[in-house]
Amino acid sequence: MKKTIKNTHWDILIIGGGATGIGAAIDAASRGYKTLLVERDDYGKGTSSKSTKLIHGGVRYLQQGNFSLVLEALKERAILKRNAPHIVHDLKFVVPTYDWWESPFYGIGLKLYDWLAGKEGFGDSEFLSKEETVKYIPTVSQEGLRGGVIYHDGQFDDTRLLVNMMQTAKEQGAIILNYTEFLEFTKNDQNVICGAVIQDVFSKEKTKIKTKSIINATGVFSDSIRQKDEPSLQRIISSSQGVHIVLDKEFLPGNTAIMIPDTEDGRVLFAVPWHDKILIGTTDTPVSEYSSEPLPKKDEINFLLTHAAKYLTMTPTKKDVRSIFVGLRPLVKNGNAENTAEISREHVIEISKSGLISIAGGKWTTYRKMAEDVIDKATMVALIPFVKSETEFLNIHGYCTPNAQQNLLAIYGTDAKNIEELTENNPELAVQIHPDYPFIKAQIIWAAQQEDAKTIEDVLARRIRFLFLDAKASIDSCELVANLLAGELGKDKDWIQKQITDYTVLAKQYIL
Ligand SMILES: Cc1cc2nc3c(=O)[nH]c(=O)nc-3n(C[C@H](O)[C@H](O)[C@H](O)COP(=O)(O)OP(=O)(O)OC[C@H]3O[C@@H](n4cnc5c(N)ncnc54)[C@H](O)[C@@H]3O)c2cc1C
Hints:
By secondary structure, the protein is of the alpha/beta class. Helices cover 35% and strands 22% of the residues. It has 3 domains: 2-47 and 159-235 and 342-393, FAD/NAD(P)-binding domain (3-Layer(bba) Sandwich); 86-155 and 238-338, D-Amino Acid Oxidase, Chain A, domain 2; 410-508, Helicase, Ruva Protein, domain 3 (Orthogonal Bundle). It contains 17 helices and 22 strands.
């Protein structure tokens, strides 16, 4: 493998294994281009694992009058549900209304949302009486409640889709490497980029590669890569962080989400059922320092707890929070915006004098269109023959029509039967890794064998989401997971011990 990487003259090198980078790798490889992607950590370690888990047009952008963004996202929503039906599904959202003007106001807005989605809509919005609202959301605060509006949008598991996207990219012929860092560019006599130095994060081995183009898809880290190309470049990223808290299902039983369109700081707040828990988020706090594991601020936690209490009959406290996670929005600066909530979510593509292609902004929902746009540009920089993107009709790995019986493994799509087969061959692998949660040992083996998982964190955070669902309980399972992984990856006792220590330190950041 190492020889191939070194000896191939790549058409496109992609830096960053989030939704943007892996989406671009699928697009490039499926057009037949020689594609290499490097991610310095695990796939989705950055923002792409910390979203609200919605595949949506964005009702908020409608409020801002950004119809083109909503239209594009609604189109992508339909494409994604068609290409990855095992992961993306329809979810009902209720907007509870407490003022006389709210039902007509939001109701008309949501009718417009339905209309923009056209025949690809997930279902029609409807006005609800007070009784109907309570039927959908039994724990909604009834003090002053007048009624509500119900509408439909998409929901998914962000890193489960990302892992399946990584597998799709590989199936299309791309080489995708996690734990491989981009270090520096190499340039020719005309100062044009012609290669890069990448490094295996574990062995520290460096490899010099040749490539006709490089795409910088590093999210909030984009400026650091741009400045490696040209140190005098102005920064373009202006990030804000968004916090989610995770509560037990009793706070919002049933399968309907709540959407609050306008909080005091002008944000949309969601309470969304997800993997038998409730996600509440998010905030929008400008930040100037970027990390892969940003920390929540006290006032963000208070904001989420107070607002959850305002709209729910039960008042959540800090001890009810099973996990808290924080993501950084890779927003591209816009001169007129007064706060980060107003910065457009549209994506921006920039090509530097030496040919570095940087793509930032956008949303998880629109990753496919972003990929198509950036690979169109890359063909011009790389001077390779133009081939039209076909990803609109490309199924994502695991594709299958979901059946009504949703079980633990359904989200794996066609891979579910392979995981079941592991348990049939070795019944010990059907044993749960924690008495209170359904995850089984076979999922860990599968993650190591087929999904490039290399650490406890890769498994518990991004292959089965235990860290995001109950951080404290996930620590109880980490020794068992470390032992299973060590068996698969050929690691020794010292490795196991270090893995447990590292994971425990990280998981504590997800506990309040
Ligand atoms: C709180 C929050 C909620 C959101 N909710 C939604 C939602 O519900 N729906 C939706 O559509 N969108 C949502 N978004 C937006 C969406 O999550 C992001 O637009 C998307 O995940 C960005 O992906 P990315 O690949 O550009 O960045 P990232 O996922 O951050 O990926 C960049 C990657 O680059 C890697 N990297 C950096 N430097 C290097 C290097 N030198 N070498 C190799 N790799 C490197 C990083 O490790 C990282 O993994 C949300 C965003 C936030 C913050």
